[in-house]
Design brief:
CATH topology of the largest domain: Beta-Lactamase
Number of strands: 18
CATH superfamily of the largest domain: GAF domain
Radius of gyration: 29 Å
Number of domains: 3
Oligomer: single chain
CATH architecture of the largest domain: 2-Layer Sandwich
Shape: globular
């Protein structure tokens, strides 16, 4: 079993084939991409015409896939429908390092193949990537460039290897195999595989771009930590898991003391270095499964599943010790005030629990800074009004309304407004489902639904939820 292959198509055979391109994230398919090449003697072949029709049908499905993992499965399923095969491998390319790494394998030797990285300088697959040319080899095991995957047997096989190229960059390679002495791929199948490879490459490029944009939307660019939106999303998940398993949950909220003074006196570049240092200190101290977020400014938070109050206090103290050990030039030693809150003891929803941790952090600052304070409802203080008791849950509700107001002010579509209301309420109330209606006379017209109607998760049209006032 070689899992690489040989013969090369004639030079220039790919000219005019790649007619897919991406414009501003949108896919444009030029009409002649799926049209039979002028003068092709096979143009009247009904089998070929049907193959091209099938190819056109699957293009939309592949290009519409959103998730990168789901796209790989879709590519594998689709090429198997278009071209009968025995095994296949999809590779991801790192053009900087000039290597191909397997990302999806359908083969009895999947473990061996997945553990083998291929250089652009070795094997038929590497040759195809380096020369940016597809390969058809009906006797791959005899090709002088073949490279056998360690741990797999040497067996006769036919191979089509298609380098996946989008926007001038190698995205990966698609290898499809037939096993046995008398097997072969036809020229028509080779042509279909190449044209399908164009769509697969563009789909991979689009999926990678979406994944990168989603990552940027969920992370803080300065520290690389998750941002505040991920904090509330993950805190909701942790609270739900804690409620299900009855395991403790701790939230740490940290704020760098006198950070404004550092920015004002030493400049924002120095302040940014302190923020990055604290982010690295947190990564080094907390467990890999803990969720670290930068909420904004000099404020950070850590979600620790299965962690009680005493363990959380020890983690916070280790952070303070780490910071105290470093003498920053011109600044001295950095300190942080830390507030702790436990769920669901102190709060049953993300907004309330976060507000409790923040109140404890403010109490730490009011008590002289560089403190670790566990939330207690009857002893919260703030630096600006140390003698005034605050209703933490009212503050949480107010923040939720402020957040929701900000989102709604940016929306015009009624359904989007309804979806924003349902999503924001979920951070405050752990509901089974939420339905948002607008009234039209006596009628209540549904505009948004979030959650499950029953144990059956089959999606239902919103129109079925239409009702009337008083019913």
């Amino acid at each position: 079993m070689l899992r690489s292959s040989a013969a090369v198509h004639p030079p220039g055979a790919q000219n005019g084939v790649s007619q897919l391109r991406s414009i501003g994230g949108s896919v444009v398919v030029r009409p002649n991409h799926l049209r039979l090449l002028a003068g092709d003697p096979r143009a009247g072949d009904p089998t070929l015409v049907e193959s091209y029709r099938r190819l056109a049908d699957v293009f939309h499905e592949v290009l519409a896939e959103q998730s990168l993992d789901a796209l790989l499965v879709r590519i594998a399923d689709t090429v198997g429908d278009l071209i009968p095969l025995d095994t296949l491998t999809i590779y991801e390319a790192d053009e900087t390092k000039q290597v191909l790494k397997p990302v999806l394998v359908r083969d009895v030797y999947a473990d061996e193949i997945m553990s083998t990285t291929i250089s652009f300088a070795e094997g038929i697959t590497g040759w195809a990537a380096r020369h940016r040319e597809a390969v058809l080899s009906n006797q791959a095991h005899l090709d002088p460039r073949v490279r056998n995957v360690p741990g797999t047997p040497l067996e006769p096989e036919a191979l089509i290897c298609v380098p996946l190229i989008a926007r001038g960059q190698i995205k990966g390679a698609l290898n499809i195999y037939r096993e046995g002495d008398a097997v072969a791929f036809s020229e028509m199948e080779f042509e279909i595989a190449k044209r399908f490879g164009d769509a697969a490459a563009l789909a991979l490029d689009n999926a990678e771009s979406r994944a990168q944009l989603e990552h940027q939307a969920r992370t803080d660019s300065l520290t690389g930590l998750f941002n505040h939106s991920v904090f509330y999303e993950r805190l909701l998940q942790s609270l739900q898991e804690s409620s299900r398993t009855h395991m403790p949950l701790a939230v740490l909220m940290l704020d760098i003391d006198d950070f404004k003074h550092v920015n004002d006196v030493h400049g924002h570049a120095v302040g940014d270095e302190l923020l990055r240092f604290l982010a690295e200190a947190l990564r080094a101290i907390v467990r890999p499964e803990d969720v670290i977020c930068r909420l904004g400014g000099e404020e950070f938070a850590v979600i620790m599943d299965g962690c009680g109050g005493e363990d959380a206090v020890r983690v916070a103290e280790r952070v303070q010790t780490r910071l105290a050990a470093v003498d920053f030039p011109g600044i001295g030693r950095m300190t942080v005030s830390v507030g702790l809150a436990l769920g669901p003891e102190h709060g049953m929803n993300p907004r309330e629990l976060a507000a409790c941790a923040e109140a404890a952090m403010m109490t730490a600052k009011a008590q002289g800074k560089n403190q670790v304070v566990l939330y207690a409802e009857d002893s919260t203080r703030r630096p600006d009004a140390p003698g005034i008791e605050r209703d933490v849950r009212s503050i949480a509700h107010l923040k939720m309304l402020q957040s929701l107001t900000g989102k709604l002010n940016r929306l015009n579509d009624v359904r989007e407004i309804g979806e924003a209301i349902a999503a924001e309420l979920r951070s405050l109330v752990d509901y089974h489902n939420c339905r948002v209606f607008v009234s039209d006379g006596d009628e209540l017209i549904p505009v948004a639904f979030l959650g499950d109607l029953s144990s059956d998760t089959t999606a239902l049209p919103l129109e079925l939820l239409r009702t009337r006032i008083g019913i």
